Each structure stands twice: as C-alpha cells, then as structure tokens.
Amino acid sequence: MTAAREKPEVPSVLDRPNSYIGKTVPRPNLDRLMQGRGQYVSDLELPRMAHVVFVRSPHAHAKIAGIDTAVANQMPGVVAVVTGPELAAVITPWVGVLSHLKGLKSAPQQAIAVDRACWQGEAVAAVVATSRALAEDAAEAVLVEYEELEAVTDMRTALNPQTPVIHAVLGDNLAFERIHDAGTVDQAFADADEVVETSFIFGRHTGVTLEPRAVVADWNSAEERLTIYQGSQAPHMVQNIAALHLGLEERQVRVVCKDVGGSFGIKVHIYADEMATYALSKLLRRPIKFVADRVESFNTDIHARDHHCKGKIGVKRDGTITAFEIDDLTGIGPYSMYPRTSAIEANQVVNLVGGPYVTMNYRARARVVFQNKNVMCQYRAVGHPIACSVTEGLVDLAAMKIGMDPVEIRRRNLIADDAYPCASPSGLRFEKLSHHASLAKLLEMMDYDRLRAEQAELRKRNIHRGIGIASFIEVTNPSAAFYGVGGAKISSQDGVAVRLDAQGSVICQTSITEQGQGSESLTAQIVGSVLGVPMERVRVILGDTDNTPYGGGTWASRGAGIGGEAALQATTILRKNILDVAAAILQSTPAELDIADGAVVNSSDGTSRIELSELARIVYFRPDTLPPGIQPELMATRHYVPREYPFAFTNGVQASWLEVDTDTGFVKLLKHWVVEDCGTIINPQLVDEQIRGGVVQGLGAALFEKCIYDERGQLTNANMADYLVPMSGEMPDIDVGHVVSPTAESELGAKGAGEAGTAGAAAAVANAVNDALRPFGITITEIPLTPQLILSALGRI
Amino acid sequence: MTTPMTISLSVNGERVDAQVLPRLNLADFLREHLHLTGTHVGCEHGICGACTVRLDGEIVRACLTLAVQAHGANVETIEGLSDNGELADLQRAFRDRNALQCGYCTPGMLIAAQDLLKQHSEPSREQIREHLSGNYCRCTGYQAIIDAVEVTARLRRSRVA
Amino acid sequence: MKAAAFAYRRATSVDDALDSLAAYGEKAKVLSGGQSLMPAMNLRLISPELIIDIGGIAELRGIAAKGDVLHIGALTRHVDLLSSPEIATCAPLLSKATAHVAHPAIRNRGTLGGSLAHADPAAELPACMVALDAVIVVRGRTGERRIAAVEFFQGIFQTTLSAEELLVAVELPVAQKKSACFFHEFARRHGDYALAGLAAQAVIEDDVFSDLRLAFFAVGDRPVLAGAATTLTNTAVTPMLLSKASEVLSKELDPQDDQQASSPMRRHLARVLLAHCVATLLGRPELRGGGV
Fold first, then answer.
1. Is C292 part of a structural domain of the chain?
2. Which residues on A lie below 8 Å from B139 (Cβ)?
3. Euclidean distance between CA atoms B119 and A315, whole angstroms
4. Tens digits of per-residue pLDDT, B5-34?
C-alpha cells in the first residue's frame, strides 16, 4: 500500500478514543452562512472593479458579418466594448480533447466567438462598464450583423449526409465514437428465451445552481499577477489553464475559492465567458466581475444527459440475464468542453451499463455528435443516470416478459457479495461491493411485501401505485485514469499540510475544495481524530492555490476518499513528530505516549502529561530548553493518490414508491429509499444529506427538468418559471441506510458518496411509474415523465 | 430617468438615507449600497426566493421590489434578524440537522421559515413544505430543512408550555 | 437582468395617476404589487419610460360589504383576500383560489387589481371574477366605467382597460344562502401557473343547480365561462347528463398548445375538472370520473 514511506505504528484512526470518524457532528463555521455573512464571488468588490456583460448570439448558427460598437462605446459608464478578434490577441483558443478517448475531435473554441456564433447564447462581444445595469444598457446598443446559417439541432440526423457539418475542418459532426464488445453477445441473445428491445429518451437538463456562475478576475499589472476569484471545484486546474492561455506562468496566477452557491459539476469546467473575463482584466488592467444572470445560466451553463439510447436485454425463463446491448446517441454542443471533454459522459454510459450484474456478454456503441445547441459536459453523476436508467429499465422489462418479480430477477443476477475482486465486461475493476446485502437492507427498510400488498389492494379501487427498484454502481475516487492519462492537467492526487500553531491549535491546508458538501468538516474530523484534538481547535484552509498544497479539488466524489486520506497521512506524521518532541521533553518514549483532547497523555492510563499549547510554547519560543540535537518539526505534508484501483467503485440500490393519477397523468412521489455502500463513513449526517440532495436532482430529471429546444436551436424555456426544478412541495421524504465495505487501498477506507443519489433516482422513479401502469400494458421509456407523456401513453389524449 | 431619488428607510433598525435610481431594486440596493450581501440574487424574476427579506414585517421578494418603494418602510434582512436573535433557535436547528450545504438559499429559507412559524405554531410537514414551496434549494433536497423547522416549532411550543 | 432606466412617480390620488397616464399613454406602466410587472421589466421584455406607483392611494384599498354588494379595492393584496373575514363569508371562492396564487412572498405584494389588469389567461383571479359575475370598476379622466368581468378579459394580457384608465375596484354579489363554490387547478408544482383550472360558483337547491357559473382558466386566451353549465342547470344531474355536458365543454374550448401542455391535454384536464366540480358540489363522489 504505502510501503515506500515510513509508517509509524498507531492504532487505526477508526479505533482511536474520541475519534470523530463515524460521528455526526455539525459542520464548523456554518454561522457565517446562516447569518448571511458568507463570501460568494458575487459579494466581492474590489477597487476600480468593472462589470462585464456579454452580447450573445440570438441565433443557433450564424456568421458574424460585422459588429458596430460605436454607439455602445459612447454610453454612460462604458469602459470598453471588446470583440472576439480583439480578445484573441490576449487569450488563445482551446480544444476540448483528451488522447485516451480515441478519435475524439473538436474544433478550437475562442473566449469570444470570432467569425461565427455556434449556439444561441454564445458570446460575440463583451461590454465592460461601471455597473451591470449600465453594461446591459450598452449591450443593447451593440449592433451585430449576422448571416444566419442552417443549424444542426437534431442529434438523430446530425450525421446524415444532407445535414450541414458545423466545423468543416472536422469533416463531419461526429465528435466521438466508442465501440465495446465483450463476451459472445449474439450467441447470448440466441440462447435467451426472451429478448426485449426498446429505446430510451433522456431530456437534456442542467444544474441550475442557485448562485449563478460568477468570476472576479483581477490582473495586477504592477505585480504581473492574476488573481481569479471563482467558485471552481478545481482551482489548480483553473490556475493551469488560465496561465496557459494567457501566456503566463502558473505561479503568476492565484485562484481563490471562498463560498460557492452550489456547483454539482457545473462549476468544474472552463467556460468561454469566464476565460474572456480573465482576459479582459489583463487587457483593461483592472478587476472585472462577471456574474451570469439566470437566463444566461440556462443558455450557457453546461447542459447534460441529452441521450437517445437503444437498449436490448436477453433473459432466460429462469431469470438469468444473458446479455446487455446498447446503442447510445448523445447530442452535445458545437464544441467539446474543455478540458474534461464532452465525450466522458457517453464513455461512462458504455462503462457502466450492466455494471451490477454477472453477465459478461455486453456490446455497446456510443456516438457523440455536435449540435448548434449549448455545450454539454459533466454534471453530477456523469453518465450514471443514463446507464442506470437503461440497465434497470431493461431488467424490469425482462422481468415482466418472463413474469418474474423485479426483486427476484435482481437477486438472481446481481454479482454475489463474495465474488470480489472481479471485473465487469466493460473492464471496470471492483474491489468489494455489496449488491445483495444492500438489496436485502432496502427491502427491509421499505417493507417491500407490505407495499406490494397495499398496491394490490388499491388497484382494486382504481388507485395506481408503483414500486421501482434501481441497483447501481458508482465511480468515486478517480485516479489519473480519468483525465490525466489523456493529457489533461487535472490532478488526481491531493495534499494536506498540517501544523501545530504557537497555541497548540492545528492549522490544516488542504487541496480539496468546499461547495457545501462538508469538505471542511470531514477534514477537521479526520485531523482531530488522528491527532487527538477537539475539532474546534482545527482550522481548515482550502480553496486558495497560494495557500494549499497542489491537488485535484473536489469532483467525481473524491474529496473524502482522496483528500481525507491525505489528511489522515499528514496528521499521522504530525502526531509522530509531536510525540517525538514530547518524549524528549518528558524523558519518556513515544510508545508510552498518546495525544488525547489536546494534550500529550500516558497511553497506559490517559494521565495528562503536557498540554499541546505548552509543548508548542517550548518548541517555538524556548527550544533552548530542549535536549541537545533535537530539531522539532511541527508541520507535516502528505499527498495521496489511489494507485491500485483506477476508481473506487461504490454500490447502492434505490426504491421509489409513488402514485400515478391516471385521469391527469400527475405523479405523486410518496416515499424514496436509498441503501448506499460508500465504505468508511466519516460523518453519517453529511453523507446522508449528500445522498438526499443527489436523489432530488434525480427526481427532478425523472419528472420535471428538460431544456426545451425548438427546431431552430432556440432554448425556449430559459427561466425558472418554464424550466421546472424540484421544489419542496413535490418532494418526498427519503430514508437512507448503509452497508459498509471499506476500501483496503487507504487507511481511512472511505469511498465517495456525493453522486450516488443522482445515479439511481430517475431509474427508480421510471420503474415505479411503469410498475404502477402495468395493468394498462404500457411501458414508458422517456424522461421527464410529464403528465402529458403519461396521458398520451395511456391513450387518454 | 437618470435622476436619483432620495429615499429614507429603516434597515435592520438603522435609519438609512440614500440617493437611488428608480430602477434599482431592493436586493441590489441592500447588496451594493449597504453592503448587506446576505440577501442573495438567484433569478431576478421572483421565483427562487433567494432574495427574501422582510418589509414592514412581511416577507417579500427583494428582486421584485424597487428601492424607491421601500421609502418609509422597515426592512429586515438576514443580518439584522441574526443579530437580534430572532432566528437563533432556527439557526441552531439548521446547523444541527445540516439543513444547509452551500448556504446560498439559507437566508431566504430561514426568513420564510420564521414567517411560517410566526403564523402557525404547530405546522405539519406538509404545511412546512407548502410554505417553503417558493424557496429553491438545490443542495439539500429539502428534507433536512423540513426537519429543522419541525423541530424548532416543537421546541418553541415546549418553551411556551 | 437589470431593468432599463425609467422615471418614477408616486401617484398621490387616482386623479393624479390618471393625469400621468394621460400624459404618457403607452409609455407608462402602472405599478401596483409589481409581482408581474417587475419580472417583465427585469427581463427587459418591457421598458416603460415612466412607472406610476399607485401603492400609496388609500382610496384603492379596502374590502367592504354594502348590502348585497362586496366592494374590493384594486390595491387589495392577495394576502388580504386570504385573511379577510368578509371575503371568507361573502366570496369564499376567492379565499380558496387565492391560496393557489404563487407563494407567500408574492401574495404579500401582489394585488387583485394588478392581477386583473395583467390578465394572464392562466391566472386564478380573473377566472374567479367571471365565476362570481363581478363588475370591474375602471376610471378614466372622463369618468368611471363598469364592465362585466366576462367582457373585461379580451385575450392574452389584454383587457378593455385603455392605456389611460385605472382599474380601481371590483364589485361582486355577496354569496347568498344555498350558494356553493368550487375551485381546483392542475399545476406541476405548488404555486405554478395552472395547466388547467376551474373556478365555479353555484346555487344549489334540492340537489339541483339553479345557477351554475363555470369559469375555466388556462384553457384559452382568457377565462372561459362554459356554456356547458346550462346543460347542467335546473335539471337532475345524471352520469349521462354529465357526460353530455363534458362533450359540450370539449367542443366549446379552444385551448392553446404550448410547451407546458398541448391543446388536447388542456381540454382533457378541463373535462376532469368539470366532473370533479359537479361531484363535489352535489356531494356525489360517484360522478367524479364522469364524462372523461
């Protein structure tokens, strides 16, 4: 495991007295958020700061014939009006490809469009003024002459010969294609007693973070340093990319992330308008603030999950699933997003379909095509919701075809809990999962048999309730296998530096970041537990490339598993160093000492020997009193990266219990359950709340959310009245349970949990709706499941 | 149109005199003129609830209220309601139950929750969900918030009893 | 999304407001509660030159029952309608309906006059006015006009209010004995605009509708006073009769197609509402699924 470095003997942190591991403790430092005293980017004001508003293309695809800025330039408060060509002199374009996604191609994208706007909402000019309102006034006066071009707006015909190719240099509109063929699929379908084939449609949707994207870029021309205040999940990545494209060294760029009003992956990407903001600050030599308004957010925040996926499953009469096959088509925007690429979601779909099940026969084709719509990229649970909905939908169809209960078919096909380590037909390596234990726990939690009985009873009275089950696996703790191998400068390791301050408190700097999930808390809990100090005496610093170790940040559910392990390792060293000094001071040996409740104690009986505050005083101010030869080191840094497994897979299972009103098509969500196995749980409440939040995002996808484009590529519902996000009135209570299978890769044993809720929720709801409508002989394989869709399927309209 | 108007109002118990343009909305006034940035902007069309403040004792959307309309009014923001302790027990419950994650919806959510509890001392979970149905949260999925409000209501009743 | 610049006047009286309207005409907008006006302005869908704030005009406030007539001032807020004992007694339909209007923070500012003048076809209160056979009182510089609700609403965001007039009050008949009301709407989420809704006011004597006004909303460009109601009036209501009424309703509706719901969907929901309404008002749950 970590044989290469010294490992002092210490009981596992999970066993230490007063350990916070596994305890629900309130997150520290919530007061400022509850008092309205947080520091979100939009709250920031700097001297001479100006505001940028982008003039955005109203057309999905158009040549920019000319831009007349004369009138706009003269308007009150205007500092500058800048077009694409002017900004191209300051910031270079980028291409969103990674070498390990073979064949992925994309055209260069500029910070502000130069010759052509390729989606409705793409920025074609920037107006900088002394206030947002004045900039908006001037933006209305910028005259842009467009020559409309034919727009590619239907992914199903994007590859047809008659369809225009968006980027001629690429040859066609195919961004990426992946084919996977494992086992003997054709034979497996031939051997099956029943083969079911269907098409799944997933509505494009988006993150709708309550705080829109916001950046303050501050180029100090005297220092030749750019400070970027941004709610990014990956500040070192932003640092690297900003430096690269602005012709700077990384050390000339500082990225600061304070409070972030929600991200879920939306704020982990590189956006053209944010790059433009950095460049404008450099060009204009003053701080520039960009805060997307809600309409801009809908039009330019990454969208996700726009898929048409054909699925096929073979099953024997005894319930054995013989094979899975999919043909997935996804329509992204005109550019693959940078730097994580817009092929990852489809790639994940291919990787994950069929994942919980034993069959090794699996064939998949995924194609990613360009469209003249907003860009698309990773959003919470990337690809998992698609893969899970397809897999679990097919499994339910197979069950129905052979007349088997949906739980029973899963019992017969989920990978056995003692079958590990093993690999999936798509090459995923599983260390230890617990599908069966999780399913058993779920059935107990929900009282499955009683619900079935209730369903039967209510059906007699024409009340239609349904149960939907969805098993899933989830990618967490990614190694460099995700991005690094493809050439992206996205770090897959993280670092933590801990030091004892002069009063015996602990200062901890970590490279993971916080968006509300509890990164600060989990770090403090681990440090406090490993060291033996109360959490209140641990101060955690994060979100600042000048003041934290170099690392990947928080995404793909890696904060606890990777950042947490780094915290554990660093603190283990600090503890050892403290005990070495204490032993010298106390004329004892480190083995006879421990640290508990902020003091060095006898490990035998817990008697306090010296307070950490006193030890710190001696080390920092009175080293003359120490025994000769000792050089105390009260600071330690450790980095951690998973080496054995490219991803730490977790597993879980969800259930939805709902009622469908067959007169109106309305679905009422009655209850939801999740059993999740994410390994060692550091803070049960925080994990459960991540799951709940994730579930509700999935429920939104299942019933409400869809970016509705018309055939001209216009996003027609870019506001919160028409794009329906889940609100409290329609959401159910969600019960969460756990099975615990720690990973042996790290001492902490923690895997990730942030995305599990979103991975399976929509699948569970879709299965439940279809279960409810079973007496009517219909199956719906499209989300969102709107009342209209349901009534149409029922033939009522 | 470009002539500022004089307004005089009370904000968190403090008298404020200001010169504002008519088009300035109350949310922007609070945030930019008074630097009370606890009132958040999420949509600017009255749907998300992030900008909820109290105007003459009643909750309103600050993004749909002009600053000039607040002339002569008594405005209370999250900062004031925190400092005077009115929300203290709700905030404690929110913290203990982790009824906030990113914190962006929280000021509006707390003010709306307090508005409910002032009108109903024993709200059902459904009533809580309904009263908060105009406050968008993307992080929590709402359950923890409902729990925290429910607990607070119970504690308040037991203190009175 | 910051509103474009505008001038602002606080009107001191109705006449004062009318003077400003006369001077500016279409270039001015009346600010009442602002809950519909402000979003439109923030989105720059409209950019008036002048905003006339009528919020301080005392004359426009107040709910008073004068004999058989209930007088409601235009500045009456939704929250006032909800909490008013006069409304609860004299026009309970309004109490029921207003609970569906948006959310508490919106109801604390939004006004009856504003909602009626705005005339969103999916809004609750215009339909209630039609169901209640209300009179919309409108004032211009030449005097007052009194317009029956059913004639007031002309189309999407269109009323017979001219650019130089102000809606000052509504008057509606106080609910008599034996009157009953029904309100329901189908909305995706609490407080959303309805996909289809029904505000109904009836007089029921011996299980028979002696009067029935069915005002559907969100199923056309304005509230629709259903002719199907006459099929159900002054006769025993049987499942077959309800079915026939439902057919009549279906034919007289011409709902819009939009991304929230298709025309057939709205028509279908209207029929569901009709059955639900009749079943509820007559206390005959077996009629609930009727005619759809």
1. no
2. 262, 516, 693
3. 58
4. 999 999 999 999 999 999 999 999 999 999
Which residues does C2 contact at the CB level (< 8 Å), separation at least 6?
A132, A133, A136, B23, B28, B44, C42
**% chain A with pLDDT above 90:** 94
Nearest by CB to C8, from B45, B49, B68: name it. Answer: B68
pLDDT of residue A546: 97
Cβ pair C190:A294 closer than 8 A: no
In CATH terms, the fold of domain A381-479+646-793 is Aldehyde Oxidoreductase; domain 4 (3.30.365)
- Both tokens of B111, joined, read 């003010």
Q: Six-digit token pair at A484? A: 């690094």
Q: Which of A36, A259, A719 sits opposite B45 (nearest CB)?
A: A719
Asked if A787's CB is within 8 angstroms of C186's CB, the reply is: yes
Query: Which residues of chain B make contact with C191, given a CB cutoff of 8 A?
Result: 133-134
Question: Which chain A residues in 481-520 lie under 8 Å from chain B, judged by CB atoms?
Answer: 515-518
Query: Could you tell me if C66 lies within 8 Å of chain B, comparing CB atoms?
Result: no
Q: Cα–chain-centroid distance for residue C292? A: 26
Place of tokens 């967490």: A476
What's the per-residue H, E or C state across A437-490? HHHHHHHHHHCHHHHHHHHHHHHHCCCEEEEEEEEEEEEECCCCCCCHHHCCCC
Which chains does chain A touch, 3 or more C-beta pairs < 8 A?
B, C
- CB contact under 8 Å between A717 and C292, yes or no, is no
Q: What is the pTM of this model?
A: 0.97
User: Domain containing C22 — which CATH number?
Assistant: 3.30.43.10
Q: Can you point out the beta strands (E) in chain C?
A: 7-10, 28-31, 50-53, 63-66, 69-73, 135-140, 143-148, 153-155, 158-159, 166-173, 179-186, 196-205, 208-217, 224-225
Chain B hits for C24, CB-CB cut-off 8 Å, are none
A41-149+212-260+266-300 CATH:
3.90.1170.50
Helices (DSSP H) in C121-219: which residue ranges? Answer: 124-131, 149-152
Domain boundary residue among C125, C141, C173? Answer: C173
Q: Are residues C135 and C199 in the same domain?
A: no
Other CB atoms closer than 10 Å to residue A593's CB: what's the count? 20
Nearest CA in chain C to A790: C265
Burial of B25 (0-12, 13-18, 19+ CB in 10 A): buried
Would you call A435 helix, strand, or coil by DSSP? helix
Which chain A residue shows the shortest CA-CA distance from B90? A34
Across the A:B interface, residue pairs with CB atoms under 8 Å apart total 173
Interface predicted TM-score (ipTM) over 0.90: yes
CA angle B109, B112, B116 (to 5 degrees): 135
Domain limit, last residue, from B50, B81, B112: B81
Helix (H), strand (E) at residue A412: helix A406-413
User: Tokens 């537990």 correspond to what residue?
Assistant: A529
| Both tokens assigned to A292 | 């997307």
Task: Provide the domain limits for residue C66.
Answer: 62-173
Provide the CATH number for the domain formed by A13-21+493-640 in this structure.
3.30.365.10
Chain C CB within 8 Å of residue A444 CB = no
Cα C168 versus chain centre, distance: 15
pLDDT tens digits along B54-89: 999 999 999 999 999 999 999 999 999 999 999 999
Q: Which residues of C have a CB under 8 Å from any CB of A?
A: 1-5, 43-44, 186, 188-193, 195, 259-262, 264-265, 267-269, 272, 289, 292
Question: Is residue C114 within 8 Å of residue C127, measured between CB atoms?
Answer: no
Mean of pLDDT over chain A:
96
- What is the β-pairing status of strands A321-331 and A362-369? parallel
Contact residues for A470 (Cβ-Cβ < 8 A; gap 6+): A388, A389, A392, A653, A654, A655, A760, A761, A763, A764, A767
Domain housing B131 = 85-160
Do the two domains A41-149+212-260+266-300 and A381-479+646-793 of this chain adopt the same fold?
no
